[in-house]
Amino acid sequence: MLAAPPEHQTHFRELSRNPFLATTGIELNPGAFTPAELPEAAWRAIEPLFEERLSTPAGRRTPLPRSRPRLIGPPGKQLPRQVH
Asked: Is 54 among the domain residues?
């Protein structure tokens, strides 16, 4: 999910090649939220899509796509693998 002002949303989406980027987003500067408020805003934006998907038989059987997490750390340092 993209959290950015409306004037940045369109430009970012045009450039993005991320197949997992949600079609909806938070059209405000993410810095305007506290750490606790941002996940709540994200859920409010994605909940209608989630509910719509659950309302169809195929949606209930099809898992949501997951992207592999990127592990970013200091150069040369081996990071532990994350388990899902």
From this structure: yes
Number of domains in the chain: 1
Residue 34 placed within a domain: yes
- Report pLDDT digits (tens) over 15-54: 999 988 888 889 989 898 999 999 999 999 888 888 888 8
12 inside domain: no
pTM score, whole prediction: 0.57
List, in order, residues 6 or more apart from 29 with CB less than 8 Å away. 3, 4, 5
Measured between alpha carbons, how far is 52 from 68 in angstroms, rounded to an integer? 25
- CA dist 18 and 1 (Å) reads 10
